[in-house]
Design brief:
The complex is a heterodimer of chains A (about 110) and B (about 110). With about 110 residues, chain A is mainly β. Chain A is about 0% helix and about 50% strand. Chain A has no helices and eleven strands. In chain A, the strands form two sheets. In chain A, strands 2, 4, 5, 6, 9, 10 and 11 form a seven-stranded mixed β-sheet that branches. Chain A is globular. The model of chain A has no long low-confidence stretch (mean pLDDT about 95). Chain B is an all-beta fold and about 110 residues long. Chain B is about 0% helix and about 60% strand. Chain B is built from no helices and eleven strands. In chain B, strands 2, 4, 5, 9, 10 and 11 form a six-stranded mixed β-sheet that branches. In chain B, strands 1-3-8-7-6 form a five-stranded antiparallel β-sheet, with no helix packed on it. Chain B starts with a strand and ends with a strand. In chain B, about 35% of the residues are buried. Classes of the chains: A mainly beta (about 110), B mainly beta (about 110). The interface between A and B is medium-sized, with 22 and 22 residues.
């Protein structure tokens, strides 16, 4: 089944403790992206990647890192999480940057 | 700055009603406009509209792109309780999709 797999689904962590949210897609898509979704603010792009070893900042990249060493994987790294990074995170992939995205199931992150 | 604005923010209707959701945009290098439905978690794809395909229909849902007015509408006829969701509009340029904040639709029996 074609899908984007995110893990974990839920995560509660403490301020400053490094964490990684994994994202993997099995559709051979070139384009991958991370979004966060907050009430009243909608989906905001954190980082995106047009292809392997190519990543770019989105609209809200501060406090996040990404890497794209393989086509299928695009992990999101929070080196020192803070409470304002509490949010619902989505990974998405697509054949093209402006084509229909396939979204992962989401990761609900709480930083206390 | 690129932006996508959806209206209304929220809509409450009875089953059987017809609803129209609006999306307007100011985005450089426009390539596509997409509609998504978000129920509990991940958004699911509904339609993609481009310069070469400005009208789409699937069952009770239909959408039109007006490139002159920089806007789109999503129509849902004969609404059902299963249509209750947040409907997201997104506009694609050369780099990414820019999302609106969504319209929350609630359909009551």
């Amino acid at each position: 089944e074609a899908q984007v797999t995110q893990n974990p689904r839920y995560l509660i962590t403490v301020t400053g403790k490094k964490l990684t949210v994994t994202c993997s897609q099995n559709m051979n898509h070139e384009y991958m992206s991370w979004y966060r979704q907050d009430p009243g603010l909608g989906l905001r792009q954190i980082y995106y990647s047009m292809n392997v070893e190519v990543t770019d900042k989105g609209d809200v990249p501060e406090g996040y890192k990404v890497s794209r060493k393989e086509k299928r994987n695009f992990p999101l790294i929070l080196e020192s999480p803070s409470p304002n990074q509490t949010s619902l995170y989505f990974c998405a992939s697509s054949p093209h940057s402006n084509y229909g995205y396939t979204f992962g199931s989401g990761t609900r992150l709480t930083v206390v | 700055e690129d932006k996508v604005v959806q209206s209304p923010l929220s809509l409450v209707v009875h089953e059987g009603d017809t609803v129209t959701l609006n999306c307007s945009y100011e985005v450089t290098n426009f390539r596509s406009l997409l509609w998504y439905k978000q129920e509990k978690k991940a958004p699911t794809f509904l339609f993609m509209l481009t310069s070469s395909g400005i009208e789409k229909k699937s069952g009770r849902l239909s959408s039109i792109l007006d490139k002159k007015e920089l806007s789109s509408i999503l129509n849902i006829t004969a609404t059902q309780t299963g249509d209750s969701a947040i409907y997201l509009c997104a506009v694609g340029n050369t780099d990414k999709l820019i999302f609106g904040t969504g319209t929350r639709l609630q359909v009551f029996p």
